[in-house]
Amino acid sequence: MDKMPKWADVVLIPLISLVLAAILSALVILAIGENPIEAVNLMVTGALGSTYGWGYTLYYATNFMFTGLAVAVAFHARLFNIGGEGQAMLGGLGVAMVCLYIDWPHWSIALLAACVGSALFGAMWAAIPAYLQAKRGSHIVITTIMFNFIAAAFLNYMLVNVMRPQGSQDPATARFPETVHLPTFQSMFSTAENALFRGAPANISFFVALLACVAVWALIWRTRLGYEIRAYGHSETGAVYAGISPVRITIIAMLISGGLAGMMAINNVMGEAERLVLNSTEGAGFIGIAVALMGRSHPFGVFLAAILFGFLYQGGAELALWTSIPRELIVVIQALVILFTGALDNMVRMPLEKLFLSLRKGAQ
Amino acid sequence: MTLMKSLMGAAAAVALTAGAALAEPALIFDLGGKFDKSFNEAAHNGAQRWADETGGSYREIELQSEAQREQALRRFAEAGLNPIITMGFAMADPLSAVAGDYPDTKFVAVDVNWLDAPNIRQIGFAEHEGSYLVGMMAAMASESGTVGFIGGMDIPLIRHFGCGYAQGAKAVNPDIEVVANMTGTTPAAWNDPVKGSELTKAQISQGADVIYAAAGGTGVGVLQTAADEGILSIGVDSNQNHLHPGKVLTSMLKRVDVAVYDAMKAGENLETGVFAMGLAEEGVGVAMDDNNASLVSDEMKGAVDKARQDIIDGNVTVTSYYENDSCPALQF
Questions:
Q1: pTM as predicted
Q2: CATH number attached to the domain at B127-253+297-324
Q3: What is the β-pairing status of strands B248-254 and B232-237?
Q4: Of A45, A91, A189, A308, which is most buried, counting CB atoms within 10 Å of its CB?
Q5: Residue B64 with chain A: CB contacts under 8 Å
Q6: Looking at the complex, does the CB of residue B35 fall below 8 Å from at least one CB of chain A?
Q7: A255: domain CATH number?
Q8: How far is the alpha carbon of B232 from chain A, nearest alpha carbon, in Å?
Q9: What digits encode the pLDDT tens for the residues A271-315?
Q10: Do residue B67 and residue A201 have CB atoms under 8 angstroms apart?
Q11: Would an 8 Å CB–CB cutoff place A332 in contact with chain B?
Q12: What is the ipTM, given to two decimal places?
């Protein structure tokens, strides 16, 4: 029998954690002499108070959904993929090649091809650590993080020496042609009188991310492969006894994970920048770990956690724009939320469980 | 519809007058952050000097992500801030997208000189010319016949620095060996003094006895290790001679602070167009002060002064790395 009702587990614990993080953040803001209520107000109105704010929040959330899902799929096979950053960088390279070197008649076809290209490149980058883990027992945490550095060096080489337009000082590719520009929320939802999402980078790849959430849910809980991944994740020996090949599951789970991380590039490279810049991933691969932890590796949880992190990013940008809170402290606030919702989960859970147990005893 | 229009018009007018009343300048730092001991910090110093002198205030933001570039430009422009000063070549692309939408706002782009927009003041520094001069000094100070260059992130801009340096060194001594290393390929390379220190030791073991650091915060480690190991170093961007008096040969000055100060001082009436900040404009140069006086011989000083004049007069041309993405004096 469960110690707590389900609603408490799903809603109450994250909410209390968030409130605790908010209180600590408020103290931090007070300590540097700014007004915390004003700061919260700025963050909420800046990130959620207008379609413009939502446009940025959802843009960041789209990135985090892809990388969060990537980490979550690997988690189900008890593999800790912290190489999402490098896989997303390579995904960006895939998108850039698809968009620059092939003539596309329409963005929709280009989007499909970019999805395939980015997923292929991301999966390719995850394949080597996966092989080393499956066949040679090299720990996936070590190899994936090393591959982040190799990816950064490789991307740098490609952008500085190969793909940079002649004479340009910026280490970036040329702009993608007009035909492969993805429709933004602004062009999709604005009417003539009423401009919505003005200037915001959210674009159609948000819906691709939603589809990916559904697809991952179906994969993990509704297919034989998903069952094998979960079985392997729960107990390797049990899985082997049931005839599941650890090598096969390790490699397949990592390929899916790398592919999802790579697909982030359709949002930030194809949708937002419309060219590949050196610093395109900017840590989203690592945020994906926090998103997957907070979302308990469930696609719906990942979706919610990604929105929360999108809010923190856009709210943080508004704070940086209109207050003199230094950006390091904005990172501290973001870190406090991760700490409380991810790492200090049990701190809230245990007293709450006791409380519910004693309430139940009292009722009996 | 007409009501809507007049309402919008009124709102726009209010926004405009509000903007005119405010008209604070804004400063957008690049991803390195404002305390990077180098490029962005120089801008911060310039802005601070303006604020101290005039008692004015300015808005600033340290960017955290690529998507914020355009966002910060638009938000500041819509808030009526003027002029809006941006740092770094990476702002060129968002600026070209945004500047046309806000014709009444003046933008300043430091390290950009190739845009075509009427309301942007573009400031390009001739880093290769300044680096050429410090390269000459390095070659004259070197006893081993080997000088070193340590760059930050491996991007064309830093190769541009290294290329001028190598040309200057070879102008003094055609047989000189120039050892060049880059710290890394990620933005972390701008702030990695430990790696800077390791690279310095590696270059010393290859015989280098003067090392030029163009690496932001990483350069702090280069200068420190060079001083500890008893060789000479050359600072960059700001005057870093004072960090280790008597151990830093000179610093290649890039007067970003002056550019920012001038822009803020001119305010809304800022002149736009492309401004080249070379040796003639004193946008770049070499730092001479009490801290390095004992290291700089009269012969060295004379040679540098002559070369500066020759470059200004056009008798000597320093090839820019950008011209054909390669360097005549150094292989990267």
A1: 0.85
A2: 3.40.50.2300
A3: parallel
A4: A91
A5: 282, 316-317, 320, 327, 330
A6: no
A7: 1.10.3470
A8: 30
A9: 999 999 988 888 899 999 989 988 889 999 999 999 999 999 999
A10: yes
A11: no
A12: 0.81
